[in-house]
Amino acid sequence: MSDQELHRPRDVRLLLAAMGLGSLPYGYTLVVLPIYLSNIGFTGEVIGAITSISSIANTVALIPFAIAADRYGRKPFALWGFLSATVAYVLFAFTRDLNLLLIASAVGGVGLAGGLSSAVWTPAWTALLAEKAPHEKRSSAFAWSQGIWAIALTIGSAMSVIPYFLRTRFQATFATSYEYAFLTLAIFAILSGLVLFPLSETLKTLGTSNGVGSKLLPRSASQSHIAKFSITLGLVGFASGLSVQLLSLWFNRMYGTSDTVLGPWFAAAEITSLVIIPIIPKLTGALGSARSAVLTQGVSALLLASMIVAPTYQFAASLFIARNFFMNISWPIQQSYLMGTVRTEERASASAITYTVWGIGNSIGPILAGYLLSSASFLSISLPISVGGALYLVSAIAFFFFFRNVAPPEEARIMRKWGFAPVRSALE
Questions:
Q1: What is the pLDDT of residue 321?
Q2: Smallest Cα–Cα separation from 342: which of 80, 66, 22, 147?
């Protein structure tokens, strides 16, 4: 199949639209769910477990679904992955039974952990976006994905006012106000899947003649590269689970703030990230992916850790906004970097392996954070944020030492400018 047939701007737009619609519920659950579960009587430990089960399910399922996507075609997995999240939001709407809530968490997106639904669509979607975007525009495509993801989380976070609005304007009960909000999330999950129906993909698009589907795991030449990337992403996953997944509960315990108050701040933390779209290509064009990722993630780590000394929730939330700005630059750079330094036929598998390690760390973090946030002491409440910031910083340093001499093909000139000899072992 020719490059013109493979690289289709319309398909890139469809992929970005589906991801945006499917990610919108994450913004809502990130703000609302921990506080909502606390309000209906669950302890911090149980809330952490409900959040963690989503990461555990995602971690267990990622590699099998990625292998299947590489073998049988990526579009069906992306489509049905988005649609399947509907089940989770319907369950959240109508039950307070712990067992059913655990099932809902395992199936769908809870905060930044996407459960089984994300395990189905993420590796397939990532590989499709890398394929549909021309090589020279891949970083821009992932920058746009980060920007749209930010818009989705912004809208989702702002939707945290829905239950309060329904209770004050229409005299809805506490239970009914949250039921309608969760059902709204289910509608967005359905729309995210429907958007992908026109997407073009054939088995030939996947390049079966080049061996896609013939191997279950990446070649030995790629494994060391992917393993190193997985180490850095695993640290990010643990840091995220520890410090970000239950962040609204941290604000609630530290400052007594409600989900209604926090919603606009979390929305602002994402909407400011829209300015990253033009920044990322310029930054990577000047510094290369490795240096850019290290710089931005390192700054974000320091800003996160400094939240523990903020005198007010407004000051802490402002630091979180600044932290998100830099982290939302680093994340798509790292995604694009991985896709640019592994073979086309290994992209879904590479994405799944690295996200699996991310999920292992992310599944542990909320359990520990929930336990620490159950205490009333300042030291215990501060540990999730301070340790999380330290882990983000260690990940950034490791990324630099692992990949300072490794570049995707389009960055060879930049590497030479900085005095490095690019090594593309994962591609050769």
A1: 93
A2: 66
